[in-house]
């Protein structure tokens, strides 16, 4: 099964990007980290991953 454009029949080449920066999420700069609702177990598991808040920048 492949994903195609309904109108042209052309095969799609889907990517997932960061909405804020437009950068593809397949780069090594992105990792999972514990979120605000994470349990203590999850926080311990991910505590070595540095995170820092980034100001929201809405793209036009």
What does this structure look like?
The protein is mostly loops and 60 residues long. It has one domain (1-50). Helices cover 12% and strands 0% of the residues. The protein has one helix at residues 40-46. The longest helix is centred in the last third of the chain and has 7 residues, at 40-46. The radius of gyration is 17 Å and the shape is elongated.
Task: Produce the secondary structure layout.
Blueprint: H1 40-46
Features:
0% strand; little secondary structure; 60 residues; 1 helix
Gist?
This protein is mostly loops and 60 residues long.
**Through-space gap between termini:** 33 Å
- Tally of helical segments: 1
Q: Quick check: average pLDDT?
A: 84
**Beta-strand level of the residues, as a percent range?**
under 5%
* Biggest sheet architecture: none
**3D shape:** elongated
The SS-based structural class is: little secondary structure
- Say what oligomer this is: single chain
Q: What is the succession of H and E elements?
A: H
Rg calc: 17 Å
The helicity comes to 10-25%
Say how many strands there are: 0
Number of domains: 1
Q: Which ranges are low-confidence, i.e. pLDDT below 50, for 5 or more consecutive residues?
A: none
């Amino acid at each position: 099964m492949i994903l195609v454009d309904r109108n042209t029949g052309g095969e799609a080449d889907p990517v997932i990007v960061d909405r804020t920066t437009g950068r593809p999420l397949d780069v090594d700069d992105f990792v999972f980290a514990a979120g605000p609702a994470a349990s203590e177990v999850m926080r311990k598991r991910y505590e070595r991953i540095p995170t820092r808040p980034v100001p929201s920048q809405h793209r036009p």
